[in-house]
Amino acid sequence: MAGVPAVMAASAPPLTSVQVLKVQSAACGIENISDGQDKTACDHGGANIKVYVLEMGYGRVPNAALDGFELDGMKTQVCAYGNGNLTQCTGAASKVVGTLYIFDLDGKQEGTFTYSNTSINAPGNKVSTQLYIK
Predict the structure, then answer these.
(1) Domain that holds residue 100
(2) Which of 7, 25, 28, 65 has the smallest CB count inside 10 Å?
(3) What is the tens place of the pLDDT at every residue in 65-94?
């Protein structure tokens, strides 16, 4: 079409990292998980355990499981603002940089939580993490 300016879009950033941020339960409240931590410090036993995972970049198909049993989750986009803070995306003045997933263990009480995803674009790298939940 003549007179219509071309719209240029940047490619989606590849996946660069994934981290379990926290585990929440009635037994322990919220336990923040440090980078590299391999198991929870608290015994989260009981129902209603939630796991929060931050994924930086864009992935194809996230896969979360507890001892091999797939988990469903909710997701929300994470944005970076001019001040460098990451938060839930709320307006046009932000840049989507990743996704926050919240997985409900749905009555499961303990085991090895695993999460992985493959980048939506080249080079198609795979990121993963795991955490033993007591």
Answers:
(1) 17-133
(2) 7
(3) 999 999 989 999 888 766 667 777 776 656
